[in-house]
Each structure stands twice: as C-alpha cells, then as structure tokens.
Amino acid sequence: MQSDSHFSYEDRYGIGPRKGWVVPALVIASIGLSWLVWAGLHHSNPSIRASVISFTATTDRAMSIRYEVVRKDKNQGITCTLVARDYDKTVVGQIDDEIGPGLAVVQKTSDIPTRSQGVNADVVACRIK
C-alpha cells in the first residue's frame, strides 16, 4: 500500500533540521578574525627592528658586520646579539653589542671575533636593556 505523500526518514525517526551551529560558528569566526587582524597589525610593527646591511670576513679570526637598528623609543638603550657562522652554519663567534640612547635610526659597524673562518654574520635579536 502506497500513499501519495512524500516519504521522509527525518519525519519517521524524529530528526529535525540542525541549524543550531550557525550562530556559535559565526561568533567564533568573528572572534578569530578579529584576533588575526590584531596579531597581524601588532607584530608587523615591532618596537625594535634590525637589518643587516653588509658583512665581511676581515681575517681568519674576525668578521665585520654593518647593520641598522630602528627603534620606536630613542631614549632607551638596546643590546643586539650578533653572530658569525661558518660554511656549515655553525656559530663560530657571538657578541652582545650595546647601543645607548640617542637616535631612533642607528647604523653601526662591529667586529665579531671568531674561533675559525666565518662566512656570514647576522643580527639574531635586539632587546631593550
């Protein structure tokens, strides 16, 4: 015996439409998107930014590095960690270079003593004293 009505398993077993997840999903998505925008804007403009201009192996036991530091607060002293690496990317020299209060943009040349021949130099990090 067939009836003319439309057969539905949802009606037969009492399964209703599930739309209760839409509102929580939108709330979580808006919070996540807001956090993503904040994190991107916050971390794209750090208080101290350092960049390497050039480096040279002056001798078998020293590297010279020229770098630039841009800081928001020119009245704070900062300390930058400079490293020299060999061909295998092993650290062969490291120093902490201090920059006192003064200009907001500072270019500095420093020598890094090394224990063996270095091939590159880098500014690892700069931090407030």
Which segments are poorly predicted (pLDDT under 50) over 5 or more consecutive residues?
Answer: none
What is the fold-level CATH name, i.e. the topology of the domain at 48-128? Immunoglobulin-like
Number of strands: 6
Second-tier CATH architecture of the domain at 48-128: Sandwich
Key phrases:
3-stranded antiparallel beta sheet, 129 residues, alpha+beta, 6 strands, 21% helix, 44% strand, elongated, 2 helices, Immunoglobulin-like
Characterization of this structure:
Helix content is 21%, strand content 44%. The protein is of the alpha+beta class. It has a domain at 48-128: Immunoglobulin-like (Sandwich), CATH 2.60.40. It has a three-stranded antiparallel sheet, with no helix packed on it. Strands 4-3-6 form a three-stranded antiparallel sheet, with no helix packed on it.
What is the structure about, briefly put?
The chain is an alpha+beta fold and 129 residues long.
What's the structural blueprint in terms of helices and strands?
Blueprint: H1 9-13, H2 22-43, E1 48-59, E2 62-71, E3 78-85, E4 91-99, E5 105-113, E6 120-128
Antiparallel strand pairs: 1-2, 2-5, 3-4, 3-6
